[in-house]
Specification:
By secondary structure, the chain is of the alpha/beta class. It has one domain: TIM Barrel. It is built from eleven helices and ten strands. It has an eight-stranded parallel β-barrel, surrounded by eight helices. Strands 1-2 form a two-stranded antiparallel sheet. Bound molecules: 3-methyl-2-oxobutanoic acid. 3-methyl-2-oxobutanoic acid binds next to loops.
Length: 274
């Protein structure tokens, strides 16, 4: 068993099979983004199950307007910083815009995130159009999280950050996409900004865990961008987010409150649904 020591306790590492077991047992999976060593330590101590080095770092760390300028080098660097503080949580690294345009490119860049960065799972955005990429990564032994719903890397194609899957055709297409990506070998599905009922249906139908952001309480797990949780989002925070610093004595307490609220299904509440 992959067991690693934290200052206060020894806890088994979160693995892909552990996430499957959590889903089967009805234990909600608490996920959060982090981009550096200090916050990785805070998240781990609070019991966050999956830590994502998201390409949101383009906005919250680099001050960019979108995630598009983020490079593989940036994710590798921040993943290494997070891995240095990680004891238990599963480290998932985002594949940036255009870093998985074909199978060879995807394999090369996923390899960099895992070998140079130390990630144990990669995440990529896309619909069933990513089936061949997911298949190639899965065959090579790369754990994959597929990202459906709002796809920020396609912002200039989509023309805005909008809720996806509200219309019956869009919902049906997303259900088909999700099944195709699971069959291709995805280990996790992340859904962003979709109706709660659709997310709940995906979680019910899929064998793999479904992690939601702006997708209601019926998912197998939840994720937030750390800056949204801390109430330091530049500009207006998204409607689905909650500032856990309000009333918290420390950052550690705020992250702990988030984990507790997710695990007890008190977050997201009705006011966080889209
Ligand atoms: O990049 C990121 O931080 C994400 C979030 C939406 C979870 O994908």
């Amino acid at each position: 068993m992959d067991v690693e020591k934290s200052g206060k306790r020894t806890a088994p590492s979160v693995t892909v099979s552990r996430l499957l077991r959590m889903k089967a047992d009805g234990e909600v999976i608490a996920c959060l983004t982090a981009y550096d060593y200090s916050f990785a330590c805070v998240l781990d101590e609070a019991g966050v199950d999956v830590t994502l080095i998201g390409d949101t770092l383009g906005m919250v760390i680099q001050g960019q307007k979108t995630t598009l300028p983020v490079r593989v080098e940036d994710i590798v660097y921040h993943t290494r910083c997070v891995v240095a503080g990680r004891r238990r949580s599963l480290i998932m690294a985002d594949m940036p815009f255009l870093s998985y345009v074909d199978e060879a490119t995807a394999l090369r860049n996923a390899g960099r995130l895992m070998q140079e960065g130390g990630a144990r799972m990669v995440k990529l955005e896309g619909t069933a159009d990513q089936v061949s990429i997911v298949t190639a990564l899965a065959r090579a032994g790369v754990p994959v999280c597929a990202h459906l719903g709002l796809l920020p890397q396609r912002i200039h194609k989509l023309g805005g950050y909008k809720v996806k899957g509200r219309d019956p055709a869009g919902a049906t297409a997303m259900i088909d996409d999700a099944h195709a990506l699971e069959a291709a070998g995805a280990d996790l599905l992340l859904v962003e900004c979709i109706p709660a009922a659709l997310a709940e249906r995906l979680a019910r139908e899929l064998r793999i865990p479904v992690i939601g952001i702006g997708a209601g309480p019926g998912c197998d797990g939840q994720i937030l961008v750390l800056q949204d949780l801390l109430g330091i989002t530049p500009g207006r925070p998204p409607r689905f987010a909650k500032n856990f610093m309000a009333g918290a004595a420390s950052i550690q307490d705020a992250v702990q409150a988030y984990v507790t609220a997710v695990k007890s299904r008190r977050f997201p509440a009705a006011e966080h649904c889209l």
